[in-house]
Structure formats: C-alpha cells, structure tokens
Specification:
70 residues, 3 helices, elongated
C-alpha cells in the first residue's frame, strides 16, 4: 500500500512550458480581416461612449451651476 503511494508521488510532472505550448496549439486565432473588423467596432464604441459620457457630464455640470447660482 505504501509502495503505490510512493510511486504516485515520484511521477514526473509535465513541464510548464510543454503544457503551455500544448494549450497554445488549441487556440483558434481570428483572421486578419476579423481582427480588423473587431478593432474598428471597439474604436467606434469607445468614441461614442466617450462622447455620451462627456455630454452627460456637461448636462450635470450645467445643472449644478444653475442650482448654485441662486
């Protein structure tokens, strides 16, 4: 019984880098066209969201200015 426990402990673990290489081979990378489309979408959404937040900020700022001038 003790021999099987020692045998399990002595098994060599696979190298971290070999496991990493094996996992990288499983990755499905997007094509250049897909990556370009996704990048464009991210940039457009970022600009639109930034403009929306800036607009909301200006409205709130004007509201606070109106309330504090009385």
């Amino acid at each position: 019984m003790a021999d099987t426990a020692n045998a399990n402990e002595k098994k060599k673990k696979p190298s971290f880098f070999k496991g990493l290489r094996k996992e990288f081979k499983k990755i499905t990378w997007p094509s250049s066209k897909d990556a370009t489309k996704q990048t464009a979408v991210v940039l457009v959404v970022t600009v639109l969201l930034g403009a929306f937040i800036a607009l909301i900020d200006m409205v709130i700022l004007e509201g606070v200015n109106i309330l504090t001038t009385f």
